[in-house]
Amino acid sequence: MRNLAKLLGLVALCSIPLPAHAQDYPSKPIRLVVPFPPGGPNDIIGRVLGQKMQELLGQPVIIDNRPGAGGALGTDNVAKSEPDGYSIAIASAGALAISTALQEKILYDPLKDLAPVTLVAKVPELLVASTTVPVASVKELVALAKAKPGTINYGSTGPGSMPHLAGELFRTSAQIDIVHVPYRGAAPAVNDLVGHQVDIMFLDVPVLLPQIQAGAVKPLAVGGRLRVQSLPDLLTMNELGYPQIEADNWYGMVAPVRTPRPIVAKLNAAAVAAMKAAEVKDKLASQGAILVGDSPEEFAAFMASEIAKWAKVVQAAGIKVN
User: Is residue 18 part of a domain?
Assistant: First the structure.
């Protein structure tokens, strides 16, 4: 009850006139689409945040995993859902910014077909290798790739995902010949990395950290500009001489574009309040997720800037998705 009172106070600050249907919202369960399989970073963030939002909103928040096309299929499902606030998504940079530059015919326009709710978190990408790959550093990896072109493969969470783009940036920046192996999400990709079916991979900290701590994979570098608190001695790609490789994944909450603004405001207030809860911070921030929780307007501006940024990267690297 105390959390609910806090939420209602936040909503009151929005100072938006509430029509009858918005005043009653939510009056039934909310479907939160995670456009990747269970077990991946998108799924972890969605479940942790959704559980807390459920407490605050007083209605069940049901996770609906809809993987495919680097997150685009699940995001498209929400874009085409009824704009009543009962179908929302937490999607990644791949689905909300990168896909528009990669696909000749996009399923949806992130800026026209979706209503931004809030930027939830930023998560650095890590470059890791299978324990059977005979390298202990990025320098050794590059040397091996140049000595044996076309024999090293790298996994990703799907075409157009941030791990895919990071891998392509690495390929072009280091001028090496490595082969892309796309998966339908992080969990199957990591399973094959641990099982030695794939050699290297860029992926979010929350999923890779347990594997690193268990010695199941070898960490080689941080893909972002800043080192990771949980792995303070791991150098960044920038420190290793690859300043072009700046790959921080991010996750944002969106709704269908015609969702009433008062309902978007309620969702924003609930999500921001959830991110301030100690248990949410402990579960996500300790794994490398940097929680944000901004306004719908700020998130919209961020999405627009990211779309422009990655369009340039995709064009320069010549990345295409069939």
Answer: yes
Q: Does any domain span residue 214?
A: yes
The enclosing domain of 51 has a CATH number of 3.40.190.150
Q: Which domain holds residue 56?
A: 2-122+249-317
Tokens, residue 291: 């929680």
Count of the separate structural domains present in the chain: 2
The answer on 99 and 27 residing in a single domain is yes
* pLDDT tens readout for residues 142-161: 999 999 999 999 999 887 78
Backbone angles phi, psi at 179, to 5 degrees: -105, 130
What tens digit of pLDDT does each residue of 16-37 get? 444 546 779 999 999 999 998 8
Strands 248-256 and 200-204: unpaired
The model's pTM is 0.78
Task: Out of 187, 207, 222, pick the residue that ends a domain.
Answer: 222
Cβ atoms of 250 and 256 closer than 8 Å: no
Can you give the chain as a three-state secondary structure string?
A: CHHHHHHHHHHHHCCCCCCHHHHCCCCCCEEEEECCCCCCHHHHHHHHHHHHHHHHHCCCEEEEECCCHHHHHHHHHHHCCCCCCCEEEEEEHHHHHHHHHHCCCCCCCHHHHEEEEEEEEEEEEEEEEECCCCCCCHHHHHHHHHHCCCCEEEEECCCCCHHHHHHHHHHHHHCCCEEEEECCCHHHHHHHHHCCCCCEEEEEHHHHHHHHHCCCEEEEEECCCCCECCECCCCECCCCCCCCCCCEEEEEEEEECCCCHHHHHHHHHHHHHHHCCHHHHHHHHCCCCEECCCCHHHHHHHHHHHHHHHHHHHHHHCCCCC
Q: Are 61 and 136 members of one domain? A: no
From CA 222, how far away is CA 239, in angstroms rounded?
Answer: 9
